[in-house]
C-alpha cells in the first residue's frame, strides 16, 4: 500500500469515529481541497484482484496483476452475448435516470470500438445500488464491503448467476458524463467497460456521505 493510500485510509478511519468535518478541522485541511485531492488519488490506488465464479465448469480465476484503478474483475469461459441492445431485465422502474444515462454512455463507448452493447439488468442494478449505499453509510471506498464481502460474494448472496464479473466504483463525480469520462481515462476501469465477454451491467448511484456521491458499476457475463 502506498503512503498516499495509507493516509487516505487513516483519514477515513478517524472520520468514522469523530466525523469527517471534525477531522478536517483538526488537521487544518480545507474540505474542497481534500476532496479534489481524493479524486486524483483514488485513480492511482492499486486495487485489482479476482473472485470466484458461480459456474463450476468454468476454469478457476487466477490473481491478476495489480492495475492502476479501483476496478475489480474475474475471468471465466466466454459466453454468447446479445446481438443488440435490449431493455433492462425485469422491471427498470427503480433504475434512476442518471443510472440509465451512464448505461447509454457505456454502450456508446463500446459501440465506438465495434463491441456489442450490454444489457441493463435491473437485478444487478439493485446490487450496485446497495453497494453504493453501503459505501456511503459505512464510510469506506473499497471493493471489499464490510457488509457483503467482495462483489462476487455479494452477487452470489443476492442469487445472481454469473460466469464472470467485474466492478468499477467512483465517488464525488456529479454527472453521468463526468464519472464515465473518469472511468474511461483509467486503464483498469475502461478494461471492464470494454470487456467483450461481459453481457449485462448494473449501475448504482446514491447521493450524500463523505464524498457527496457514490457510483458503482457491476458487469457480469451470463
UniProtKB/TrEMBL annotation:
Residues 76-89 have a biased composition (Low complexity). Keywords: Signal. Residues 104-219 form the SCP domain. Residues 1-21 form the signal peptide. The keyword DNA-binding does not apply. Coiled coil: none annotated. Residues 50-91 are annotated as: Disordered. InterPro entries: CAP_dom (IPR014044), CAP_domain_YkwD-like (IPR014258), CAP_sf (IPR035940). Residues 50-75 have a biased composition (Polar residues). Pfam families: CAP. The keyword Signal applies. PANTHER family: SCP DOMAIN-CONTAINING PROTEIN. This is SCP domain-containing protein. It comes from Thermoactinomyces mirandus. The lineage of its organism: Bacteria, Bacillati, Bacillota, Bacilli, Bacillales.
Amino acid at each position: 500500500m502506498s503512503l498516499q493510500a495509507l493516509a487516505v485510509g487513516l483519514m477515513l478511519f478517524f472520520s468514522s469515529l469523530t466525523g469527517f468535518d471534525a477531522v478536517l478541522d483538526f488537521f487544518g485541511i480545507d474540505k474542497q481541497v481534500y476532496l479534489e485531492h481524493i479524486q486524483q488519488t483514488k485513480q492511482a490506488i492499486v486495487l485489482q484482484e479476482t473472485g470466484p465464479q458461480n459456474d463450476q465448469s468454468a476454469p478457476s480465476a487466477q490473481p491478476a496483476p495489480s492495475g492502476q484503478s479501483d476496478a475489480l474483475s474475474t475471468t471465466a469461459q466466454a459466453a454468447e452475448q446479445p446481438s443488440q441492445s435490449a431493455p433492462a431485465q425485469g422491471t427498470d422502474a427503480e433504475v434512476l435516470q442518471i443510472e440509465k444515462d451512464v448505461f447509454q454512455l457505456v454502450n456508446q463507448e463500446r459501440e465506438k470500438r465495434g463491441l456489442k452493447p450490454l444489457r441493463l439488468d435491473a437485478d444487478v442494478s439493485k446490487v450496485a445500488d446497495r453497494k453504493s449505499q453501503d459505501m456511503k453509510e459505512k464510510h469506506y471506498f473499497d471493493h471489499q464491503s464490510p457488509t457483503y464481502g467482495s462483489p462476487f460474494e455479494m452477487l452470489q448472496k443476492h442469487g445472481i448467476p454469473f460466469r464472470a464479473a467485474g466492478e468499477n466504483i467512483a465517488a464525488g463525480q456529479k454527472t453521468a458524463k463526468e464519472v464515465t469520462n473518469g472511468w474511461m481515462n483509467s486503464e483498469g476501469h475502461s478494461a471492464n467497460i470494454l470487456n467483450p465477454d461481459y453481457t449485462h451491467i448494473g449501475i448504482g448511484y446514491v447521493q450524500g456521505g463523505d464524498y457527496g456521491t457514490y457510483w458503482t458499476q457491476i458487469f457480469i457475463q451470463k
